[in-house]
Amino acid sequence: MVFTLSSILSFGQIKSNEAKLQLVRNATLVIDYAGKKILIDPMLSPKGAIDSWAGIAKNPTVELKMPVEEIVKDVDLVIVTHTHEDHFDKPASLALNKSTELIIQPADKDFFKKEGFINANVLQDEKVWNDIKITRVDGQHGTGEVLKQMGETSGFVLQAKNQPTVYLVGDTVLTENILNVIKKFNPDYIIVNSGGAMLRSFGNIPIILDEDQTMALIGASGKAKIIAVHMDALDHCFTTRTILKNKAEVLQITDDKLIIPEDGEIIKL
């Protein structure tokens, strides 16, 4: 059973050994895991601070539901899947203490050095951090010509004693590698970026999972519950929460299998 708690509560207030996840906005998450507060892909810009990527509206298209100070307070670790502006922006760089511990992919080493972070740790494969095993997984941020422009991206698997196994898929389309990771780790939760983002100049080809690819992933997900994020916050994401919910209803996928949190919502895992 999945429980939701009031989004008014800060993660500092509920931090414990019980695993909890809060969707901040888009792909920005706070995960309370094995007693540690882990911030994922912080995009902390105010509404409209970033230029449009689809010619529709400036990004992000919605405001944060909580103060930036609350999001970054008492953070133990930041995990960054890649450095596109919708996953790590300048306000995030400014808000975080430069001594904050980060886990990053190899391709982003120079970026974080330039940003002045002194504890940005490159993860090639896997490591144990404070009794949490973190495994990096290669993503594929599109197909064809657009993939050459999008660069490298990663997902991460979190494992710890008496904690659910969580697979953070990251910005990727559905690939055989993703399915193999699901088989290998048999996760309890899979967090998917399901916004169906597209760059019109490269045609109507998703660069992350859309509603159809999310449904295909669900079909191969085994026991895992799916938490779908990266929706309703950017002008180049064309799969909305409503579209995803409607697709799930047609396929008779229930709410306890596919969880679509609202911004600010806390989920007890």
List keywords for this structure.
alpha/beta, 8-stranded mixed sheet, 7-stranded mixed sheet, 25% strand, disordered N terminus
Q: Would you kindly provide a written description of the structure presented here, covering whatever features stand out?
A:
- With 269 residues, the protein is of the alpha/beta class.
- Helix content is 21%, strand content 25%.
- The chain is built from 8 helices and 15 strands.
- The strands form 2 sheets. Strands 1-15-2-3-4-5-6-7 form an 8-stranded mixed sheet.
- Helix 7 crosses helix 8.
- It is globular.
- It starts with a strand and ends with a strand.
* General shape: globular
* Helix-strand makeup class: alpha/beta
Could you spell the SSE succession in H and E letters? EHEEEHEHEHEEEHEEHEHEHEE
Overall mean pLDDT:
93
Q: What is the strand arrangement across the widest sheet?
A: 1-15-2-3-4-5-6-7
| Helix fraction bin | 10-25%
Number of strands: 15
Unreliable stretches: 1-14
Specify the biggest β-sheet.
Answer: 8 strands, mixed
Report how far apart the termini are. Answer: 8 Å
Strand residue content: 15-25%
Per DSSP, the total helix count is 8
Radius of gyration: 17 Å
Task: Give a summary of the structure in a few sentences.
The chain has 269 residues and is an alpha/beta fold. The protein has helices at 11-14, 68-72, 90-95, 109-114, 145-150, 176-185, 211-219, 241-250, and strands at 3-5, 20-25, 28-33, 36-40, 77-79, 102-104, 120-122, 126-129, 132-138, 154-159, 166-170, 189-193, 225-229, 258-259, 266-268.
